[in-house]
Amino acid sequence: MRTDLPTPGPRRQAARRRAQVRRRRALALAALVALAALSVWAAFAVSRPVSTRVPVAAAAPTVLASPAGEDLVPVAEADGVDLLLPVSREVSTAVAFRPSDVAEAVSLTPVGRRAAGGDLGERLGDVLAGGGEVAYALLDGAGEGSCDVLEVGAVPGSPVVSPVDGRVVSLQRYRLLGRYPDVELRIQCADDPSLLVVVSHLRRPQVAVGDPVAAGRTSLAELRGFPASLQQSLGRLTSDAGDHVQIMVLRVEAGLTGL
After folding, report:
1. How far is the C-alpha of 242 from the C-alpha of 231, rounded, in Å?
2. Looking at the structure, do residues 31 and 126 belong to the same domain, yes or no?
3. Residues 229 and 123 in one domain
4. Is the pLDDT of residue 138 over 50?
């Protein structure tokens, strides 16, 4: 065995050490990236809403199909202004009212019949398809003069149409409870400019501020789904997670909207 092989010089040894350090750093970085990707996937899987899929028939809601307005269904009244069903009948699951602590909220008058007993489990689409009245429920202590918030249950991803004629005066993206992305639209009512119709729990808005909207015809956005961890009161009336679009009417000075 030869013993006279030259030993690496100091520069070569230092270069080898630097190469080893770079390899270790690259491996550590790859491990961190993989861990971060796994964490994001896990968070999404936990918070994903549990609900049914949008039926094929709901891609074009029936409330848009009748030019004569025969298929437009009023579900509430606010100081003489009708609020129409904002989603297709095929994907509707429930209609409910509850009180609000907002001082400017206008009390809503339900349209239809109050559901009780076994009627609470009726699917709204089935009721309307059979020619029956809209069956609604009262939640969280709502009663005469305290029906300030309208909740209409539907499948996430369903198109949401304008419940009134008017003009979009506000579009806000915010985080529900500081965590979950949500969209709120405000519509100045054409029949009474002092009324603002607030529509929330939306995603992918299809209108912009200043756009005119037609009741039951103009598509506003899609209905968003709620994370499974956020239990919805409407879920007690439906067979799903209680996903819904929320509507509230505010009384304001007509000139404050700026349109």
Report:
1. 8
2. no
3. yes
4. yes
Find the CATH number of the domain harbouring 142: 2.70.70
Residue 1 neighbours by CB distance under 10 Å? 3
Backbone phi, psi, residue 176, to 5°: -65, 125
Same domain? For 105 and 214 the reply is yes
CA geometry: angle at 211 spanning 164 and 79, to 5°?
Answer: 25
Containing structural domain, residue 37: 1-47
Weakest mean pLDDT among 124-138, 143-157, 169-183, 197-211: 124-138
Nearest to 181 by CA among 157, 211, 202: 202
**Mind listing the pLDDT tens digit for each residue in 61-80?**
433 433 334 468 999 999 99
**Same structural domain, 127 and 145:** yes
Q: What is the pTM of this model?
A: 0.69
Q: Residue 239: CA atoms inside 13 Å, Cβ hemisphere, count? A: 7
List the structure tokens of 187.
Answer: 């519509």
CA angle centred on 131, ends 138 and 246, rounded to 5° = 35
DSSP helix/strand/coil, 107? coil
Phi, psi (degrees; rounded to nearest 5) at 213 = -130, 145
Tokens, residue 70: 């025969």
